[in-house]
Each structure stands twice: as C-alpha cells, then as structure tokens.
User: Fold these one by one.
Assistant:
Number 1:
Amino acid sequence: MAPSHKLTRRQVLKGTAAVGALGMLGSLDWLGQAWGAQDKVKMGFIFVGPRDDYGYNQAHFEGKSAVAKLDWVKAFDEEKVPETIEVQKSMESMVQLDGAQVLFPTSFGYFDPHILKVAPQYPNVLFLHCGGLYQEGKHPKNVGSYFGYIDESQYVAGIVAGGMTKTGKLGFVAAKPIPQVLRNINSYTLGARSVRPNCTTNVIFTGDWSLPVREAEATNSLVDQGIDVITCHVDSPKVVMTTAEKRGIYCTGYHVNQSKLAPRGYLTGAEWNWAKVYMDYADMIRKGQKVPNLVRGGLKEGLVRVSDYNQVVTESVRKQADAAKAKFMSGAMIVYKGPLKDNAGNVAIPAGKEYVQTDYWLESMDWLVEGVIGSTKS
Amino acid sequence: MDVPKNLHKALEPFLIIVGSLSVSMVLFGGFVAAAGANPIEVYHTMYRAAFGSSFSWQNTLVRATPLMLTALCTALPGYLGLIIIGGEGAVVIGGLAAALAALTMPTAPPMVVLTTMAFVGMVAGGIWLAIGGALRHYRAVNETISSLLLNYIAIAVLNHLVTSTFRDPESLNHPSTYHIGEANMIGLIPGTDLHWGLVFGIVACVLAWFLMHRTVFGFGSQIAGGNVRAAQIAGLPVGRLILIVCFVAGAAGGLAGMVEVAAIHGRANDTLNANYGYAGILVAFVARNNPLAILPVAVLLGGIRASSGLLQRAHELPDATVLVMQGIIFLVILFSETLYGRFSQLQKQGVA
C-alpha cells in the first residue's frame, strides 16, 4: 500500500502546503489576497471531450489557450474526463499536485455531485463551473458559475438562415430536449421567422451529446426532407457541418467557428467567447478582487459572438442580421415576448408579457415555438 | 510433489505477463519519445500520479474499483468458453434498478435501503447477462454479439426512463432520477477517501475465484468450458451452468452500477454509461479471466488512467497517450498468449 498510509489526506495536504506547493492554504479570507503580484495565477481546466472537437470543448480550450499566453498565468488542462468520480480526482489532483488556485470544470455534469463534493474540502480554491447553476446560500461560497446567452447569437444566425433559405425549411440537429437546447432552437427559429414569417425548423434529437453517426444520419435525413440550411446543438458540430457541405446546402455553426469545415456553405455561426471570461477571472484573481459567484452575459457582455458572414450572404441579409446584433448590443432586444404560441398551438407567452434574457423562467423552457417541427418528447 | 508443480503452474503465466508488461513499457517508451517527450520523465510522472503518494494511491484505487467488478462480467463466462462483453449493460441496468428500488422506499433505514439496492442491482444485472447466456444456449445466438447489443438496449432504456417516467423535474439540463437521499449513500472507508465499493470489488473477486476453483460447480463449469460434448456426456447440466455463471457475472456488473449510484452520483442518469464495462473487458483479458489476477490488473489499469491527468498537464501529451499504452499492453499480451508452453525449461521442471 501507500508508503504514507497512516496519513490522512488532510495531513498530506498540510505537508505539501508546508513545502510551499500550495501557497494558498495560508490565506485567511478570499483567494487572491494570499499571493504577491509576482506569483503566477494557476488555473486548471477540465474538459469532458477532446480539445480539438470543433465544438464545446474546443471553445473552452481556445479560451484556456488565450489566458495561458499571459505571462502571469500558468494554465493547464485535462481532456476527456468523464462525469464520474474521476473528475473529482482530477480536480483534487490539480489542486494537490499543481497547486491550482482556480478550477474550471467545464462540463455541465461536473457540477452535481462532483464539484459540490470536492469544493468544501478546499475552501481556498475557487471552483468555477460552466453552466450557471450557482445558487446563493445553497452552494459553497468558493463555487461559482458562468454561462453565456448564446441563444442571442443563434437568433442572429437564424436571421441569416431565414434570409438565405430558398425552401423556407431549416434543419436543427439537437442532442437532448433540455432547456438550454430548446432555447437555442426557439431563438434560431424566432430569428428566422422575424425575416421570413412562414419559415419552419425541422428538429431531430439524437439522444446524446456525441453520436457522430446518428448526427450524420439526421443531417442526411433533414436534407432529404428539403431543408437547405442546417445548424445544430451537439458537443461537436463537425459531422453536421461536413455532411451539410457535402450535400451542398448551407449551414450555420455552433460553439466555435467551423468555416474551415464548410468553406462554401458556412453562412455564420453562434460562438462562445470564453477567452473574455477567463481573462476577466484571471485579472480579478491577480488583483485580489472578490470573484462574483455568478457571471452571465450575451453579445453585449462579449461572452458570445457571431462568426463572420460568408461572402455568399447577401447585403440585405447582412443588414438585417447586423440590425438585430446592434439591438442586442444596446440591450434593447427582447426575444421572448408575447404573444407567442408553442408548436402545438397553445399560448406559450401571453400578449403583453416579456421575458428579458436574465429571466429564470427561460431556463426551465420545455416547449418549442410555433414554426418548429418536432417534439420535446425524447 | 504438488507444491512445486503448482508453483510452476503459476510461474509460467507470471513470467510471461511480467515479460509482456516490460516489452509494452519499452514500446510505449519509444512511442512517447517519438511524440517528443522524455520516456524516463514520462514514466516518473506516471509513477508519481498513480502510486507516488497516498493521494495518488487513492486516486488509482478509486478508478480500479468499478473495473474489478466489471472485469468479472467477462472473466466468469470465460470459464465456460463464452466471450461476453455486456458488462456495460449490466452496470447501466444494475445502477438504474438499484436507484429505482431506493426510490420506492423513502422511509426505510439506510441499511435496509442499501441492502435492497445491492440485491436489486445484482439481480437486474444478472438477468441482463443471463439473457445473453440463454440466447447462446437455447437459440445458439452468438453471445459476444448479443451481449454487445444488449449494452445499447440497456443505455437506451436508461436514457428513456430518466428523461420520462422517472425524471426528477428539477434535473433540468441533466435528466436524472430523484436523489436516493444523502442518508442512503455509501460512506467512505474510515481514514481514507475511498468508498466501500473497493471492498465489494475485492470480496467479489475472491468469492468468484473460490466459486470457480474450489467448488464442484466451478469444476463443472471448467469442464463444460473445455469440452461441451464431454461435459454433456458426463451428465453435467451445461445449460444451467451457463445461465448461473452469466447471472453471477452480470450480478457483479449490477453491483458496480449500484455502487456508482449509491457511492457517487446518488441518482441514476447517463453518467452510468461511463465505459467501465468496456474497460473491464480489457482487465479480464489481461488477467486471463482469473478473478484473483483481476485485482492487480485493475489496479494497474486504474493507475494508468489516474496518470493521464498529470501526463497531460506536465508533458502536454494528449489523453490518448494512455489509450495508446493500454492498446500496446493489450496487443503484447494477446501476442504473448502464443508463448505458453514454448519455454522448455519451464515445462521440464513442471513435469518433474
């Protein structure tokens, strides 16, 4: 067994701290106060999939790479860490062996139970989770969450899709009928219908986050049904984009810029801008400021963005999309306002009612807006 | 005498496996050198991350725990000459059934809940693999294919039930069942950060070894695995042996699923499908289906997995590095199978 089997982990931790690997253990109150300015901010990132997936994980890896370029930051990461006890061990390992001061476990499923279990054991380490689940009072103080309103970008991409479609039929390959995904589908469709009112979006749910074969089948099936612009919400849009390009239709991207995968048909796309988030966090920690437990934002705050338009996007469509973008930037845009019907004909939002982006009601979305062809039943 | 002969029987596989692992390490060293890293440093890092400290050991053992149980899913039917690769399905179904069982008894004391969960999880996992065994015996369906396909069915059943009938409406973006309750969670082994699943794994492997090597039942199974015809002529109930062994194998997988729910997640959801079943196949294979050998092999594989993180951070190697290592070990062991009986020195002594 272990040479030091008589020691508890806590004791080992203290021993390590004494050696100096964990400078933060002596800190009294909040992170950041314990370090001199010359110390590097040590940031650990954990991804559920490969770093180069052209999708969710690559978006975070790009953010990590941007922050790693700063000479006062030491950033390290692990890829393909499953949402099991293994992520708990990865987090602890980053703290114990690398002296991480702040961790970014980026997958949604890392939060409960894993972060909630590990965070209380390391009160001087920050655990910042992507997904936006932090609740004051309910969760440990050294836990925070950040998320972007990427459906704003999807709304703009929807306008481009709606403007460019000839058949008036859009396609959407989605992983699971959960609120985050439904909100993207709805915003995309609302964007498209704002410029082309009887436009429809055909949705296929594949059932899981990473099923490349099924995603290709879904894309082909949608093309066969006559759609001519497609987008998706799966972990890696790679297969959807390349299949669309092969079939000669347009596509709009998700997570990161996929124009390289579909140079002819990639109209635009909804992208994360995690670099901005990670830079801000690093800066706050270096300055010893209190890091907010909840960070949210959309186009205006710079957490999400829209890919550059493909040259085939016409001038009038660009103008419409840019107008919507400008409205988001000024904060004047409200996507979810009544009267709005769901796709079963029921009233989803009554006339006169408005939900601004930050409204929590939108985060329990379980309906598809009128114009979407598909069902939330899995 | 008996003792040296037995020792001898153990020496040959021991030497061959140690030899294979050494060859694998040399090959992998060449691979990381080609990838631009210093092999000695890489091995040092791997050692540090997997076995170098108390924390590393616990990290390794935590990852080895489910593999001990899922390896039995493949190892036990191996005695009967069956190649079952349905451990993943047994884990998923066992975990799901265990979680649902716990949810039916909200007021029962924790010990009762946990016992029921273990029982239900094991029965569910057992039945799942027994289906593969039954299809083999009664309908001559290839058990490897059927058990593989049963995995996909199990995952689909799980995903369906946790997104519909048994979904906790609070689990918005990560569909799951309700929580089984903090009081009903399996705790940690005192003085460590390890949950009791590790003990379950060790006990299960020891019991499985006893069953297959020290009982009439196990003897009968080995005969049936050696030659079905001979076993039938000798009057052995081959069908019953297949069903029972597959059931026991599946029960081990079901227990692994139950432990995932009761010790880690507290709910059943898609994280049950974490490929432990598939990793278990590799463990069983390297251990040559011997339940006792599963224990060190699972720890070795757990250590390799545990070292992945630090390898990525310290040497900027991709996660696939450890998969390459696993693959190399697997291939070399596969090749080493051809070496049995080839070393005359070993054989002669064995006869003496």
Note: The longest helix of chain B spans residues 2-34.
Number 2:
Amino acid sequence: MHPAAWFAWLAGAVVAASSTRNPLYLVVLLLIFVLVVEAVRSPNVYTPIPVAPERFMLFIVPVSALFNAVSTHFGDTVLFSLPDFIPFFGGPVTAEALVYGATSGLLLSVLFAAFAVLNLAVSIRDMIRFIPRAFYPVAVVISIAVTFVPTTLRQIQKIREAQAVRGHRMRSLRDWLPLFMPLLVGGLERALQLAETMTARGFASNATPEKNAFTQVGTVAGLILVLAGGLLRMAWGEALWGNVVIALGALVIGGVVWQMGRHVTYTTYRRNAWTARDWMVLTGVAVTLVVLFVFSDRLARYYTPYPAVALPVFEPLIGLALLGFMIPAVVAVRGYLESVQVPVMEGQRPS
Amino acid sequence: MTRRLLSTFIYVLTSVIGLLSFIYPFIWPETIMASAVHGQAHSADAPLMLSVLIGLCFVALLLEIQGDSVSTKFIALLGVLIAINSVLRFMEVVIPVPGGFSPLFFLIVMTGYTYGGRFGFLMGALTLVVSALITGGVGPWLPYQMLTAGWVGLTAPLCRPLVRMLHAEDRWPEILILALVGAFWGFFYGAVMNLYFWPFAGGSADQYWEAGITLADTLKRYAVFYVATSLVWDLARAVGNTIMILAFGAPTLRTLRRFQQRFTFEYVPGVSEVA
C-alpha cells in the first residue's frame, strides 16, 4: 500500500478514536486495529514496535482504572473508602471513577494500536520521504542519523572488544568513560569525513528552502491566527470559531511550507504506486468518518459514567461504520494470498 | 533588521502558544469545566486540538530555526550526534533503567551549551524523532516530546552568562552549573510532559476543578498530583542527568570544543590568490 494511504488511514483512526469515549466503540476499534496489526506484521521482517497493542492494553487498562479509582473521589456508587489521612488518595473509591479510568486506558490502547499499525506498515525511509520539502535539511539530518545508527551500534561493539582486550572491566560509572569517549570522538571524526564527502559530491550546490521576509511574514500571520483561535477556544470557550481560526492559521503555515519547499529538487529512485487498494482504504476511511460525523448523533458517541455508572449505548450503524478501518487488513490478506504460489498437480489445469 | 524583527516575533509567538497550550488549564479552568458539562464532545477532542496547536508551533519554529543556508558540516555533525544519542536511548529500551532516567538528555544539554541554542533545539527534537523511528515509538506524544526536548537544548546556553560572570570556563563550577541545568530539566521535562494529558487523563474536569477555583488552588492540585504520580519517576531522571554530567561532562565538553574549532574552519583566499 502507498504510505499516503496509511497516513490517511491513521488520521481517520485518530480522529474517530478521539471523538468517542464509549467503551463499546473503543473495544470495536481496538479489535479492528489489532487485526490490522496482525495482518500487516511480517514474521520474517524486523518489527519495530516495542510492545504488542493487546499486551499494552492488558497493562494500561487495569493501571489506569486503579489509579483513577484511588485518585478521583467523584461518583455516586461508593465501593469502599480509603483513610482521609492519606494525601491525594484518601477518600471514597467509586465504581464511576474505576470505569472512567478503564475507559481512559482503553482510549490510550486504541491510539497506541493505531500508531503501531503505522510503525509496522510504513518503512522508516517512507516516513522520512514524507517530510515536506521545506524541511529538506532536517530530512537529510534524519536520514544521516538513521543510516548511522547501525554503524554506531557496530562501533560500540568494536570499542567494547578493544577495551576488553586491554583488560577493561565495568565496575563503576567511571568505567563507562573509556567506552563513551572513543564513541564520541570516533563519531565526530566520521562527521568531518562525511561533511567533506558531501561537499565533494556537490551537496552545498543543492537548492535550499527559500526563506525570505515574505515567508517570515506568512509564518507570523499563521501563528497570530493560531494564537487567536487557541484563545477563542481556551479563554472564551468558542470551540467552533476557535477551530475555524486555527484551521485558517494551519492553512497559512501550510502555504508557507509549500512556498519554501517549491524550489527544492526532489528525486526518488523508486516511486510508490497508488493502486486500487489505496483507493479502497481511502474510501473506507471516508465512509466511516461521514457516518460518524454526519449521519450519527454526537451524543451517541459520548459516554460518561458520572454521576452514576450506566451501561453505554451501542448504535449498530456506528459499529458497522467502524468496520471501514478494517479494509487494510482485508487488502493485506488478499495480497498475501495472491503472492502465495499454489502448486499445480499433474494433469490438473491451473485455474 | 526587518527579518531579525520577524524572527524575534516568530520565537515569541511560538513560545507563547506552546506555553499557553501547556498551562491553560491553570489559567482558564472554567473553560474545560464548561466544555465537559455542556459541550461534552469538545472535552474529548481537546487533547487532539492541543496536539494540533503544538504541532503547528513546532513546524513554525523548525522553519525558522533550520535557517537560510545550512552547511554540510552542520548537517553531518548534527546527524552523527543524533545517531549516537538515539543509540543511547535505544540502549535505555534494551537495558532496564530506574524510573524516568534517560541518557539522551546528557548530549542535548552539552551540545546545546557548546554549539548554541539552534543546534541544541534541533539535537533535542530530532533525537526524539530518530529514536522513535528506530524503536517504533511514533505516537501522538511525539510532538510534545520533540518540542520539550528541543526546549532543553534551546535553553542550555542560557547559563553561559552565569559561567562567564563566575569566570568558570573550563573549571569545575561550569560542570556544576551544567549539572544543575540537567537536574532542573530532569524534573521540568516530566512536569511539562504531564501537563498535556493531566486535565483529561483523570476523568471529567470537575475531578480537578471546581467552579470559581483560583490559579493558586489549581497549581496546588497539580503539585499534589505531580508529587503523587511523577516525583519519584522524575527524580531518577534528574539524578541520572546530574551524575552523567558530573562524571562525563568535563571530557565531553573538552572534546566538543576541540571539534568546534575544526568544524568552524573556513577557507579564506589569500591576497595573492585573489589577485
């Protein structure tokens, strides 16, 4: 799939997850995202996620529920009370606080799972390629850093071996110095060599982002709009107008980014192709968001256990719409099945 | 002159927006109350909106900080130092370390102090990006981490006047001052990072705010929340930063300064060549 389709999927997933606190919808979203994680995870390739989303959920939901229960003393259904002399935690422990804490943990797990999909599905190179052209120097720095990480790890191993041969042993904090200093000095020497190589290959002659007074005025104007929108939301509670003004500010800053990156040359060895599968994913996300924000009641997505805990409402239309996020899993499984060669038996016609 | 003025405007505006995004629950608690009680859904999208504000702030600041022309030496030096720092963070993921201790702040403070705020900001922000990419840690928390870690590097050179005033260059008080900076950011990084989720993580706003609550009361509640939930975690980070700077600070500073002379080397044509 095209990285842009993944980013669109992620944006839709984050917006959908952030728009609800109903635990039933959150569970549906979590199940879908875990399924997508499993579908895009390749057993033969290094998977850069430290914790599986389901494990993260098993940890964060109880911790969040417990912490909220002992630190928040609101709600009608009192389970038991902690002594008042305990600062912050003393007071009644309520079922409402327990449920709210669990819901918060669930929301965090859903967001974690959505980003886990991105971390698995989009390669580091593709992520760097998505950095806007205006940030060309930053993208080059990130590229260099990512490329030098394996080199640095190898360097650490070499320094360790060299110091071990000299009888170096790790007994105290000071013993890290003979490992760290050669690493730093070696790294800086490599940086000098790299700079000379880059200059020799004509890096400096590349077009750099065009920054002038005009783009600076645009940035200032965009920031003033963002500040005004933020104040409308935060100070005066005008959420709708605040959002509109912030969006205007974002547009102006986006325009500056586009203008600054216009003259930066962009070359690519292999271009990612946008296929019918990407359109399917995009359509799924669009349909889900339209159903969520146009055809369903805002209150149907909202849930709070306060003041007295009650069962959340489940609207089948919303539940069905959320399945739109599952299309990448279907696409990935279909792609896998297509890639598996089916052996053809003798005398049998291939279908 | 005009461009310098505009540049100052950008720094001031991004600082104001970033600061307001973090501290607005203390100044306008009633807005959160109202949105939680009446607007309902707005309280759910507030963290998302704050992420957008912080993200836009970061984009504007990065546009300004990355500068007009970037030399190959600057890019190569930054890239390699970020790689070393990201590996240090990668080791923190592999080897269990106490609490919030992270070795990555050491190099951010040292390079920010030696090579300037611009370098320090990029070092802090981009270390977080690269380490997130290699450890699969890209998430909604990343813009906040980038901005806050960038601030660590950006503010590190602020202690230079104090060092100059005490005539402490290349002497132990300089390392002591840097250790204090490390300790301060050990606590402050945690306190700032808490702020983006604090008003929303615990539950509805009335758990933390009441109608007519004063700024002092809100700060007191946050202080209790911070002491109860984060103090020990951040203490490990502050102690770790201090120990690392005290133990490795002096030789690192000497090395960075030695290379600074080599990296700022410029070729100036002689009179005979020009002629």
Note: Chain B has 13 helices and no strands.
Number 3:
Amino acid sequence: MDADIALILLQDGIVNGSIYALLALSLVLVFAVTRVIFIPQGEFVAYGALTYAALQEGRLPGSVWLLCGLGAAAALAGLVQQRHFLRAPAVLRLLAETLALPGAVLLAALWMAPRKLGVLPDALLTLAIVTPMAPYLYRLAFQPLAEASVLTLLIAAVGVHLALLGLGLVFFGPEGYRAVGFSDARVAVGPLVIPGQAFWIVGSTVALMAALYAFFGFTLAGKALRATAVNRLGARLVGIATSLSGRIAFVLAGGIGALSGVLIAPLTTVYYDSGFLIGLKGFVAAIIGGLVSYPAAALAAVLVGCVESFSSFYVSAFKEVIVFTVIIPVLLWRSLRSTGADEHE
Amino acid sequence: MRPRLSHAPSARWLPILLFALWLLVPLMPGVPSFWLTLANYAGIASVIAIGLVVLTGYGGMTSFAQATFMGFGAYATALLTTAYGVSPWLALPASLLASGVAALLIGAITLRLSGHYLALGTLAWAVSFYYVFGNLDLFGRNDGISGIPPLHFGAYALTSSRDYFWVVWTCVAVALVLTRNLLDSRPGRAIRALRGGAGAAVSFGVDLPRTRLLAFTYAAVLAGLAGWLYAHMQRSVNPTPFGLNASIEYLLMAVVGGAGALPGALLGAGLVTVVNDQLQDILPRLFGPRGNYETIVFGALLVLVLQTSPEGLWPHVRSWFRLPGGSNRRSIPDAPALPARPLPAPGAPVLQASHLRKTFGGLVAVNDLALHLDAGEIVGLIGPNGAGKSTTFNLLTGVARPTAGSMRFLGRDLAGCTPPRAACLGIARSFQHVKLVPGMSVLENVALGAHLRGLAGALRALLRLDRAEEAGLLAEAARQLDRVGLAEHADRPADSLALGQQRVVEIARALCLDPVLLLLDEPAAGLRHAEKAELAALLRRLRGEGVTILLVEHDMDFVMNLTDRLVVMEFGTLLAEGTAAEIRGNPAVIEAYLGSVA
C-alpha cells in the first residue's frame, strides 16, 4: 500500500469515525443519565437519512405518520401513568408535547415537502420529524422501567430496536436511498481530493461537541443532567425530576441520531435496516470509552472508523468481524481493571 | 431425622403424563403435518430456551449469542455429513463438541465481564460470527450448505414432520431431565448462587469463574443440540437463522415464558413460535404484504412483559392452575454424617494478626490492629459504627487484601489468601447484609455451605451419579438447620423468612463448612429476645465443641453475657481488650460510646 491509499483510507476513517463519535456521545449521554444502553440509536440514523432523502425528492416521508402515532401512544401512556394525580397544567403540557407538536410538524411537512425548499430547510424538518420520537419512546418503554436493572433495560432496548426496525420497513419500504450532499465543492490537499461533505460531517461533529460541552458546563438543564448521571437519588432529593432528565437525554439522543442520518445520507445508500450496524459501531466506541468518558469515546470512534476503512481495504469480507472483535480486548481490559464486583444488580 | 412427605404423587407424575400424551399427538387422526412442523420448531427453540433458563434465569448472565452457538452445532453436522459422509448420529457428538468448545473459548475471554458488559460482549460475538459464517468458503458463504442427509434408522429416513416430532421432543425431554439434574446438585447450587448470592458462594469455596463458564458452556451445548436438530430437519443451513435477530428471539422466549423456571422455557418457546407463525399469517392480510409486522409486535411484547411481568408468564400460569412450584418439597435423605475436620486443642492459638492495616485511599479503615484468637473461645469485636469491624472481617476472610501486616491461621500464613482458600482452611462467616440466594430453598442455601465437603462435578450431576454424596450434603444441611432451630422452614424459599431468621440461616450455612473459626457479623440483629437466648445457647454449645468464634455485635447485653473476651475498636484502632467487666469499666470505651463528660 502506498501513502496515497493510506491517506485516502485515513480520510475515510476520520469521516466515518466522526459519525460514530456523534453516536458514541449520545450513547454515553443516555447511559449516564438513564442507564439505558440505547440500542435503537441506529434506527434514528436510518430514520433521519431516509426522511431527509424523501424530503429532497419532494415526497412526504412516512416517518411523519410514525411520529404522530408514537406521539398519540405516548400521550395515552402519559395519561395512564399520571391517572392518579391528573392536573390541568400537567395534562396540557403532556398533550402539547405529544399531540400538538407532531400535529404542527405534520402540517409543516405537508406544506414543505412538495416545495423542495433546499438542503438546510429539509435538514431542519428532518430533525423536527425524527427527534421527538426518542422522548416518546422514553415515555412508552423506559420510564416505567426506570428502577429496573441495567440488564433489564438493555433487553427492553433490544425490544424497542426490534419494533423500530419493523416500523422502519413499514414506513420507508425496503428500497434504499441516497441523498444529495450539503456541498458539491471539492478541495484538493496534496494527493487528496476532499469532498465538501467531509468538512460538513467533521465540522458538525466538532460544533456539536462544543455545544454539548457548553450545555453541560454552563446551563441549568445540563447541570441537572450531570447530577442525574452521578446520583439519581441525590438528584431527586435536591429537586431534579429524573424523568425529565431522562426525556432531555432522549431528545438529545434522537436529535443526534437524526443529524447523523442527515450527514451520512449523501455518503452511502441507506436502507431501513442500515442503522443498526452504524449504531453498533458507535457502541463499540462508547464501550471503549467505558460508557462514561466523552472525549475517550470520541477518540475511540475515530479509531473505529479507521479500523473499519483499513480492514475494508485489506479483507473487506471480514470488515465487520474485525470492527466488532476490537471491542473484546477492550472489554477484557476494563473488566480486569475493575475491582471484582461480581454481584449483579 | 424422619423423611418428610415428598411431592404429592400427582405433581410428580403430571409432567411425565403430559409428555406421554404429547408424544401421542402425531398419532391422532387429522392432525395437519403443518402443525407438527410448527411443534418441531417450538421444540428446537425450547432446547435453546432451557439453556437460557440456566444461564440467565439461574446464572444471572444474559447472552445475545445463543443462535451463534446453535450455528456452531448446525454447521458442524452439515459439514461432516455432506463433505465427509459421516452419519448424522455420529455427527451429533461433534455438534455438541463444536458448540461446547466454542463456548469454552469465547467464555474464557468474555465471562470476566459482568452484567451488561457481558451481554454486550456476546452481542459483539454474535455479529462477528454472523459475518464469519457468511464469508467462509468452507461454509458455502451466504448460500450456506445444502443437501444435508436426514436422520435415519437403518434404511428408514426420518423425513416426515411426524417422525421428526418424536426426535425433537425426545431431545427436549432429555434436555429437561438433564437440566433438572444439574440444577438440583452441588454444581447446580453454585450456578444458582451466581444470581444474588455470588459474594456468599465464593466465601464457601465456590470457584465463581469456573461456575460461570460451566453455565455458559452448558447453555451453548444445548444450543448446539438445537443446531443439530435444526440442520437435519431443514436439510440445509445458511447464516440467517444463526444471526443476532434469532438470538434476540430466543432471549425473548425466555423472558416471556419466564427464565426463572424450566417450564417457562417451554411456555415461552411454544408461545413465541405459534404467535410468530400466526402473525406472519394474519398481519400481512390486515396491513398489506410490505413489512415484518411480527418484529414490531415482538419488540413491543418484549417491553410490555418486562414492564408488567418481569418474571415472565409462567408464574401466572402456575397460579392459575394452582400448580406446585417455587421451592420443591423434598424428603431429606438419611445419610451417614460427613467426616469432620479435627479441631485444635482448647487454648491452642488459632489466629494471630499483627500490625494489620487497611487503607482506602487516605482513609485508614484498620490501623495496625493486633488480634489473637485461641481455640474454643468466643471473642466479641465491638466498636462504634465505622470502627473497622466489618473491614477486619473482610481481611480475615480474604475478601479484602490488607495493605500491610501479617495474619497466621493455625500456623499458616494468610498472605494473599482468597475467600475460597479461607473457606478451605476452615474459616466460615456470616454477613452483615444477609447474602442468601433468594429463590432457593432454605435447605439448599444451607447446603451451599457444605460445597467444599463434596466433589461432584457437572458430569456426575447430569447423570445422577452424585446421589450418595448429594444425600450426605443435604443431610448435613438438614442437621445444621435443625441445630439452629429452623428445621421446619427447610423447604421455604430463603427470602420468605424474616430477616432475623435469615441471619440464623447464614449461621447454619457457616456451620455446614465444618469451621474451625466462625466469624459472625451481627448475628443477633433482628432477633426477638427468646431467639437471642437460643442463639447464645447455640454459640456456647459450639464453643464447648471446640469451635472458635469471633462476633461483631451491637447488642451489648448479648455480647457481655456471651463472650470470654472483648476487643474494642475505634477509627480502625484497637481501643481496649479484656473481659466484659474490664471493658465495662474502661474510661476510654465509655468515652468512645457515650462521648466525654466534659
């Protein structure tokens, strides 16, 4: 292999790694705040990519209807959960969150979709359609299990993944789509020709990380989330609603997933079931980071992207095998270091 | 002890009767062969789900790789029977071996992980091997291997779903019986202790990593059996049925049916298989052909069951039909007493610790403690909360490593001692926070204490060659339970007892070790007055027999009247030592407990 190929592979690795880094960040965030290992993260990527692709073609994406359905289900679940202390303001807020919001998004989509307003409005609409699904899912699936063990939550997350996979096929169909990029520009750097989309991806990742850093460091909501992550009971005792923290974490996860989908849609053809593998690679990175450290997870994500691009060059058939077995030595190393707390929760 | 009533005869024969009736189903006229095929799929899934009951329900480990192990079994027989013309019957051991060896290797590097890390580790393996299966020329890549011969007896090939029904369900029955044998044995108790009682099990000599590997491998071998059945039923294999989604489906079966009991595996496998088939039939008619609607239903169902019935559906079914269950009533066999360990002569030194020190970061929990115990004395270790009493216990039993200092037990150096090693030497303990295995009967919990007094391994347990030894262990457990006055509770689940009684069960378990030194952490907490008196009498009897006892206790009446000697700790340091009367008058002790007068 000469240096040029190595550079191209490296560039590929960094671009893909940036996406994995975003996903890893969101996985770490969700796990820290809610203890949910968010396996369905990948489905949000696929939903985001397919919704964005549909909008670009001037079609109304099926995910709008899914959003309305999930919203209605979440409204129902919310009412059932609160049935013993129903108060008008809380109910109104719930209904605004779960019925009015999807309704507004639906109207916006009906108006915007046929007009093909361009890249940026489409991307924003995609975020508006896909992001709220995550907090709805939190209400439906995870909030009632908030006190369960990590393992139970993991199995529930796998159930949600299964359901979203099936729903993805129903609402998007089996065909794959590829979207137009944010930018057609190409920049030549030495032997490399870097597509503009690569800058968008890496740039968005860095910008989002900076935004998250500011959010956690300087805002009350961000600090509340951090407090919940450190100690749920303690957070509750000082007046932080941990279920609200959970919903915020899921909003962020849904948004990050949808954004990753929008970013990745121009790079590769996305099918309804493509998200899972992409999400799992974010996982590999998150786990290498120990599910706690954001910078470590982001670095690991870039590493995963590079391992992937290099192994796809050498032994493309075993690319996935290599990427997923990278996790094993890391898990081993972590468990060797951890004090033998064998007791299960 | 008189043997007690065992199972009511109906309860014992009911499963056998039901199974016999089930085997007659294919002979009923008019049973569509399609139903039998479905039953065969359910049977194969049951075998895997039974493995998950052992692994997840009892062992507390979650695996997303059971379909992968099924794949090892299926590909092994497919390869041997097609490429090498081996008879399918001869390929069966190879299938079991393939999945077993794969599990040993994968387990050896993955089972160090605990909780959700292990689950994620198996998930990674499942994804990896899916691609390995699909990319190896040897395995026919994504097309897989076809032309697998059917099972046969002589010239008669078992190709009809009716014939195969008997093969599959015989395998299910064998798997059920073997698994019951395993769970109801010395290694089985160790597996069952993995969930919720691992900390205690290790203090009675259970080798935790080995036990985890045993459960993991056993579940994988059952999955290998299922793979062998699948390969010869389907007559072809490809990677899809051994992928992650299939693994998730098997886990779903165990969760829905109830991983806490063997019938739950059958219930879950049957239910999910039938519902899956019906959904694949009905849903497309309702919603059109586009979509895997059943995955949506299953995903939602999985979440719903976890939310509303985390133990699965089997406990509900059991209570509807008023079936006996939970801890099984059993007769306690008469067996000769186990050989006892020789105790040191009264007054001989048992334990000497000097300059014992333990620090956690900057905190000195135990500060240059000197402690000696002589055979046949009861010593009380007292002190205010946070004085380092429990840490001292942990140091003496190998749970925590001392930062400095030396400990000698019966002349042996305890440096680098692990909990199983301490148990081996004859140091038994009870815990400040009770550590009993919740679903297991009181008797079996106590029998866990006698783990080191038996040798039977998994193979002997599976084949019931361990019965004589097992009878000895259970008889010993019953004897110790009788001794502490809880004999009538032997068959109840341990977690149904009052907390005070659970502490006493822990003492019985410690006695089962045949200890030289007994370490009791707050044994009288939660006991009523009369029960405390009985406990004190028991401890005095033990002292009379030559057992050395060190106890931490906050009930001063109890401690003062019972002990020969008291050791008082404060902030990790030895504050005073002496007889009860001396300690009572010691100004430093009074100040530590009550504060200074000034």
Note: The first helix of chain B runs from residue 9 to 24.
